[in-house]
Design brief:
By secondary structure, the protein is mostly helical. It has helices at residues 19-23, 26-45, 50-53, 55-66, 69-77, 79-91, 100-111. The protein is globular, with a radius of gyration of 13 Å.
Length: 117
Amino acid sequence: MRGGAGPAHAGLSPRSPFPRRAAALEVAARYCGREMDLYGQCVAARPASWQQDCSDLRRDMARCAAAHPIVRKIRHECAESFTAFEQCLAENQAAVVNCTEHVNQFLLCAEQVKLAT
């Protein structure tokens, strides 16, 4: 979460320097990449008001992701760490870099989720 980057570009992207972590979210990025990019761009462009200004884009991203089984499973199994991450973002709207540890905990959980075959 360097340089005020938004959540979609702070380790949540498959273009992350941490490919193993990003792998768990590759499905979401594959099917919802446009939504993730738009949300991330909005967050990065509005460091002081992103939570309010980008809420429609966040909902679009969530709706898209909700349609995919692996993403639903990640959201279910990692709900606690994701909620902590979102709460941190809400409390640090002007300094999202403060939430690095929260996003790392969520990604650690997400990379361990497997889709039943």
